Amino acid sequence: MKGLYLLLDLLTPIFPILLSFDRRVRYVQKWRSVFLSTLIIAVPFLIWDFIFTENGFWGFNPDYLIGWYIGNLPLEEVLFFIVVPFACTFIYECCKYYFRKINFKSFNRILQFAIPIFAMILTLLEPTGWYTFSIVVSSGIVLFWWLRVPRYSFVGISFLISLIPFILMNGILTGGMTDTPIVWYSELQKVTPRIWTIPLEDILYCFTLVASVFMLSEFFEEKRAS
C-alpha cells in the first residue's frame, strides 16, 4: 500500500494532540519544550540513520512510501523522529500526573541495572554488528545521563509504557502486518532473534530515543520555570 508509512506517522500523534488540552495533564503547555527537544535529539538520530542507510545496514521499501526523500531518507522516516517522541512524551506527562504519588526509586534502580545487562546479552549472542554496537553505546550514554539526574523519576515507567505503541508501530514497519517489511535490516548488522518481527536492538533504540527527549524537555521546562 503506497503511503502506509506516512499513514502510520499521521496516526501516531492524533490522540496526544486531541488530549493535549486536558486540564489535568495540560500537555499543550509543554509543546514548546517538547518540540525543541525533539528537534535537537532528531539531529544525531537522522545522521545515524543517513549513515546506516547509505551503507545498506537498513533500508526502506518504496512500495509503502510516497516517494519524497530528504537526502537518502524518505520523508516518512524523518517524520518518525518527530511524531514518535511527541506521542511518547505525552505518555511521560501522563505518568507524571497519574503516578505522582508513587515512588519509583527502587523500580528505576532495577531498570537501570537491567538495561546494561540486556545490552551485554546482545553483544554476547552473536558477533557484534554495527547496529548492535551503536545502540549499546548510545543507550549507555543516555543511561549515564539518566543516572546523573535521578529527579527525573518517571523516565523508567514512561519508557516501559511507551514500548507498547513503539513495538506496535515498529512491528508493522518490520513486516508484522504486511507481505514485505516497510523497513528492512541487514542480518549482518544485528542479532538474529527478534520480538515478533522487531530486532531486539529496537528495545534499546526506543529507550535511547524517548528517554533522551523526556529528559531534555524536562531540562527546558526547568529553565523556563526558573
Keywords:
6 strands, mainly alpha, 226 residues, single chain, two-stranded antiparallel sheet, 6% strand, 8 helices, globular
Question: How many domains, as an integer?
Answer: 1
Strand content: 5-15%
**Helicity, as a percent range:** 55-70%
H/E element sequence: HHHEEEHHHHEEEH
Task: Indicate the mean pLDDT.
Answer: 97
Main beta-sheet annotation: 2 strands, antiparallel
Categorize the overall geometry.
globular
Strand order of the largest sheet: 1-4
> What is the helix tally?
8
- Find the structural class using helix and strand composition: mainly alpha
Secondary structure: number of strands: 6
Q: Which residue ranges are poorly predicted, with pLDDT under 50 across at least 5 consecutive positions? A: none
The rounded distance between the terminal residues' Cα atoms is 49 Å
Rg is 17 Å
Quick structural gist:
The chain is mainly alpha-helical. The chain is built from eight helices and six strands.
Describe the protein's architecture and organization.
This protein has one domain (4-220). The chain is globular, with a radius of gyration of 17 Å. The model has no long low-confidence stretch (mean pLDDT 97). The protein has a two-stranded antiparallel sheet with strand order 1-4. Strands 2-3 form a two-stranded antiparallel sheet. It has helices at 4-11, 14-18, 31-54, 75-98, 105-125, 130-148, 155-173, 201-225, and strands at 58-60, 69-70, 73-74, 183-185, 194-195, 198-199. The chain is built from eight helices and six strands.
